[in-house]
Structures are given as structure tokens and as C-alpha cells.
Design a protein that fits this description.
With 208 residues, the chain is α+β, with helices and mostly antiparallel strands. The chain is built from five helices and four strands. It has a four-stranded antiparallel β-sheet with strand order 1-2-4-3. The structure holds iron/sulfur cluster.
Length: 208
């Protein structure tokens, strides 16, 4: 990875960590995150500076037009913050983690039940890593997940969410131009055109 991926190194404290302890992100913590993430299909975790994130109004167009989850899911617009709020939120963070998962299945476009199972597993992984970070003193950590929430077969929107503790906004609902952001991070990504090609999941944890 290039220099835009950062690893903030400070030794792992042996004492209980206070919130806002300015502890950086040690190699040991990153390793623990990797280990836990693997259980959920998270193959890679990359720390990076927030100024690499690209936000754009056009991302919202893709939510409004051509996506069945618009105004139908609590993790998607318009239930999520608007662009001005997103910019304010992002200004309150300096570091984030990119979580990358792979999917390589010939039945990807045929077996929607299995897709949902995999998506839920990956979703839970993001929330679980966020929780782990919280317990390590990163009280600001919050996950932006990949794909609309699929915890329920059909989202309860506009009625109350059935699992509010697990509910998180999607990456795209935060106006993040994912391809532009990946380019900034020096990560090359391409459209999977053939069934045998690898499909990737990307989620983000805003860290500190
Ligand atoms: S947990 Fe269920 S009701 Fe809540 S956002 Fe997810 S799918 Fe919708």
C-alpha cells in the first residue's frame, strides 16, 4: 500500500485505556482487528487519513434513482444525514479504517438468500470491530457499512427499526464516492463482469 495508508503506532498500553487517550492505533490492535474481522469475512483492514475520503452530491443521485432501497431502508437516504451534516461529521475525525471483504462465487447473481447471509455476516463484522474499538478507548468509532441493511428480510422503514443497536448507515448514504476514495488510497478496483471474478465489499469505520 502507498504512504496514504497510515498506521499510527504507539505501544499497546497494558493498563485499561481511557477514552480519548490519544493512543494511536498500534500494530497489536490492528492485528487483533484482523483476527476478529476474518471471522466475518473481512480480509483486510487499512487505516487511512480522513482527507482521502471524497464526498460528492452526485452519489445521492445513485441512491435516489436506480436503487430500490431509497426511502425504504433505515440505513439509506433520506433516513441518513444530509451532505452538510456529513461534512461536519467528517471534520470531527482525522483517521478511519477501510475494511475489505472478498466474495468469489459463481452463484452470486443466482442465490440471493446466500448473498443476504454473507452480507449480514459482513455487516455484523463491521459493527463488531467498531465495538471492539470502543472497548479499547475509541469512543468515537462508528461503522459505515457496505450495502443496505439486510438484517431483516424486509426493512421495517418507515416503522421503527427492529434492531436499532445494530443499525448503521451505508458508505454511500454518507455521500462517499467510493471509487474516488479508493483511487486516493492507491487502491485499484474494477467492475466484476464475469461470474468467476471477485466481488469486493468495502466498509469504513470512522475512528478518531
Ligand atoms: S435492522 Fe431491520 S428494520 Fe432496522 S434498518 Fe436493518 S433491515 Fe431495517
Amino acid at each position: 500500500m502507498n504512504e496514504k495508508i497510515v498506521c499510527l503506532s504507539k505501544p499497546e498500553p497494558s493498563e485499561p485505556v481511557s477514552f480519548r487517550a490519544n493512543i494511536g492505533l498500534s500494530g497489536q490492535t490492528l492485528e487483533q482487528l484482523h483476527k476478529k474481522g476474518k471471522q466475518y469475512g473481512v480480509e483486510n483492514i487499512l487505516p487511512f487519513r480522513m482527507n482521502n475520503i471524497v464526498v460528492a452530491q452526485w452519489v445521492n443521485l445513485k441512491c435516489r434513482y436506480g436503487c430500490s432501497q431509497y426511502m425504504a431502508n433505515w440505513s439509506c437516504p433520506p433516513a441518513t444525514p444530509d451532505l452538510a451534516e456529513v461534512k461536519t461529521i467528517f471534520s470531527e475525525y482525522s483517521t478511519a479504517l477501510l475494511l475489505v471483504g472478498n466474495q468469489n462465487r459463481n452463484d452470486f447473481y443466482k442465490d440471493s438468500n446466500r448473498n443476504r447471509t454473507d452480507q449480514v455476516k459482513y455487516w455484523k463484522g463491521t459493527v463488531s470491530l467498531e465495538r471492539m474499538l470502543f472497548l479499547k478507548g475509541y469512543d468515537k468509532a462508528i461503522g459505515l457499512v457496505s450495502g443496505a441493511c439486510s438484517l431483516c428480510k424486509k426493512c421495517a422503514y418507515p416503522d421503527a427499526c427492529r434492531f436499532p443497536m445494530e443499525k448503521r448507515p451505508t458508505v454511500e448514504s454518507f455521500y462517499i464516492d467510493l471509487v474516488g476514495t479508493l483511487k486516493n488510497l492507491g487502491i485499484d478496483t474494477k467492475v466484476a463482469l464475469e461470474l468467476h471474478e471477485t466481488f469486493k465489499y468495502y466498509s469504513i469505520i470512522l475512528l478518531d
